[in-house]
Amino acid sequence: RVRRAASVRRADSAFLRRCWRAVGRRVVRRGARPTSASLPTEAACGGGDGASFFGFWAGGGTGRMGADAGSIGPQALKEATDALNAAAAPLRAVRELREANSSPVRPTADELKVLDASVRKNAALVKKLRQLSEDAAPALLKEIAQVNQGKYVSEVVAAIADAPLSAKDVPAAVQVCSLIHRRYADFGGAIGPALARAFSAKATTSEEERTVLRRRRSSLRLLAELAAAGVVLPGPQPLQGLVAELCTEVISSSKDICAAASAAAA
Asked: What is the pTM (predicted TM-score) of this model?
């Protein structure tokens, strides 16, 4: 009897997982709160009697869940649906950003002519881009839309690549890079190699090594996010090349550590 009870509990857990996966797929696909008509039946979740899944959570269904079904009501279902929507929101934002970056409608030459293209204004903007952060991003986005940077794209790329980004600054940097990419066609092909140059830096002291590793980490994170957002142009470089280089370094370091440990043990 004990083994049979354990088997029933495992079957109930698997049944719940299948049901929630089915709910999640429908919520993400439809983008709306599920109703009793839109929720999957038990048959769709792997059950056998075809009872409404909504009935189980409302406490009115019968089946393998038994008496426990009445303890989960519409409020719990609403909270779970809200959680699913909140989890799907970042994915929808990334998809929308990638679609906008993949087919950008860039300003014409006449539209850029009316913007400020002075050296002073562009130099000030490049200086601000070197200090790119989450807090500075809103003002930068507004200023980028008011300045003609067509002749200074290389300076803009170098400034963003040198910015000391932290993990929380990366989403803001993606928004800034996306806007510049949608305005200037040569930005996407230049930002990837510029970020990849962080991996060619060598350190001679422990302090320099920490700085280099911190910059590598932020550059790789930003590069991956820009690739997902459709800013970095597709191809074998630079993201795939950097990952392969990192793997080679890790394997080489592991071999050196193993050799040193073996020598010490001998």
From this structure: 0.61
* CB under 8 A, 24+ apart: contacts of 102-110: 102/230, 104/181, 104/182, 104/183, 105/182, 106/182, 106/183, 106/184, 106/185, 107/183
Tell me if residue 7 falls in helix, strand or coil: helix
For the chain, report the end-to-end CA distance as a whole number of angstroms: 57
DSSP bridge pairs for 116: 147
**Residue whose C-alpha is closest to residue 20's, from 89, 85, 90, 80:** 80
Write out the H or E segment, with its range, that includes residue 194: helix 187-196
Tell me the C-alpha to C-alpha distance, in Å, between residue 129 and each of 143, 165, 232. Answer: 11, 11, 18
Question: What confidence tens digit (pLDDT) does each residue in 31-75 have?
Answer: 444 454 544 444 444 444 444 444 444 444 444 444 444 456 788
